[in-house]
Each structure stands twice: as C-alpha cells, then as structure tokens.
Amino acid sequence: MRMRRKKHREERMEACSELLIPDILEYKDDLGAVFGDDKPLYIEIGCGKGKFITETAMNNPDVNFIAIEKISDVIVLALEKVKAAGLTNVKFVRGDANLLGEFETRSKCDRIYINFCDPWKKSGYAKRRLTHANFLEKYKGILKPGGEIHFKTDNQALFEFSLNSFSDYGLRLKNITLDLHNSGFEGNVMTEYETNFSSQGMPIYRCEAIYPAK
Ligand SMILES: C[S@@+](CC[C@H](N)C(=O)[O-])C[C@H]1O[C@@H](n2cnc3c(N)ncnc32)[C@H](O)[C@@H]1O
After folding, report:
1. What is the pLDDT of residue 119?
2. pTM of the full predicted structure?
3. Is 118 a catalytic residue?
4. Which of 5, 8, 120, 186 is the most buried (most CB within 10 A)?
C-alpha cells in the first residue's frame, strides 16, 4: 500500500499510545497478559486503515483483538479509528508479521485474520505471501491447538495458492466460497480493500483453515 507520509504522524501516534504495544515480544510467553483477562484473542495481520478491526471489535466486545501493521502511515489511521470508537478491546503492533515466528510456545490466540494480503504475483516472491508454509509455521507458535486462520482475497491465483498451502501444511479447510457476497455467509465485515474491489463487481474469495487440535 503506497501512502503519502502523514502530517504530524508521530504526534498522532503518540496521541494513541495507549493502544500501541511497544514490544510484543515482552509477551512472548504469555500473550494473554496484553489484556490481563481470559477473553478469546483474535489477531489481524495487515490491518491497513483499520475498518475491519474497528467494526469487528465493536461487534464482539467479549473478544480481545491485536492488529499488526507494518506501515506507520497506515497504522496511524487505524489507531485513530479505534480511539474514536472508544474501544478497549483492541491493541496494535507496529511491525512485521514475521515477528510472530518468535512465539515458540503455543500461545493464547484463537484466530488469525488475513484480509487482502499482497499477492506477490511473481513466483520468486511466493515466500512473502502471508499464506506461505513458512508463515503457517510461524502462526503455529502463537495459535492455540485448533486455532483458525480466516482468509479473504480478491485474487484468484493467491486463493488457489493459499488453499494448496493450507492443505499441504495439514490444515483442515471449511466454509470455502468463491463468491463471498453471494454465498449467504452472515456477519461479514468488509475491509477497505474489499469495499473497493466489490464496488468494481469483483468476487471475493474466502475460507477458514483450522490447525490440528493437538
Ligand atoms: C493490500 S493491504 C490490505 C489492507 C486491509 N487488510 C484491507 O483489506 O483493506 C495489505 C496490508 O497489509 C500490510 N502488510 C503486508 N505485509 C505485512 C507484513 N508482513 N506484516 C504486517 N503488515 C503487512 C500492508 O502494509 C498493507 O497495509
């Protein structure tokens, strides 16, 4: 996502500092301590401008959320959305999804959302796709046994790659749709990219991939 540098970005981030986790690796052994309660924890990777995390957190006050985003000019907009909504069940990590590989013990997270991640079309870049086996291995360290990935994309080739990747890695697939908005699926929360793609008439692909329970 290419963005012009946001004016007063660091001051604006500072104004939302209570929502930022400065060093998530401090919670490497006890991710639950981020919120200090026993609610389920869902993580969104690449939250962009934060529409999805804000609305999903509003709809699910009994769930805690951590949103990870690597681009500062983007995460600042997500932080401001969550702050404006007055939500206390969302925290942010400014950083790269690769850091999830540092969580060696199977931790507290129940679900990971990956929405409209970069397709990295050239096959030489396949390892950068957030659904590549290398990332699935990293997510294993942070997910509970039986934890889930909920994945959406507009990109058919990425979807096919991801289904194969999930399956080859040994994840169980469910709720697969090649046209989410005409599938009867209830409770879908649209992301910024999804709103844009669907307004152009493009189908949205979605699936859930479940890690083994043991
Ligand atoms: C195509 S945008 C989609 C944004 C949002 N999920 C949506 O659907 O509107 C992908 C986002 O993921 C972020 N991203 C990509 N790779 C990432 C990574 N490895 N770690 C953290 N964020 C990443 C990008 O900075 C960008 O904001």
Report:
1. 97
2. 0.96
3. yes
4. 120
Asked if the model's pLDDT at residue 1 lies above 60, the reply is no
Q: Measure 87 CA to ligand 1 centroid, in angstroms.
A: 22
Residue carrying structure tokens 């469910």: 174
For ligand 1, say whether the CB of 44 is within 6 Å of any of its atoms: no
The structure tokens 């998530």 sit at 24
CA separation, residue 15 to residues 10, 20, 77, 80, 127 (Å): 9, 10, 12, 9, 36
* End-to-end Cα, the chain, rounded Å: 37
Q: In this structure, which amino acid lies at residue 36?
A: G
Task: Flag whether pLDDT at 162 surpasses 80.
Answer: yes
Condensed to tens digits (0 to 9), the pLDDT of residues 32-73 reads 899 999 999 999 999 999 999 999 999 999 999 999 999 999
Neighbours of 7 (CB within 10 A): 7
Nearest-CA residue for atom 14 of ligand 1:
46
From the CB of 191, is ligand 1 less than 6 Å away? yes
| Distance between Cα 70 and ligand 1 center (Å) | 7
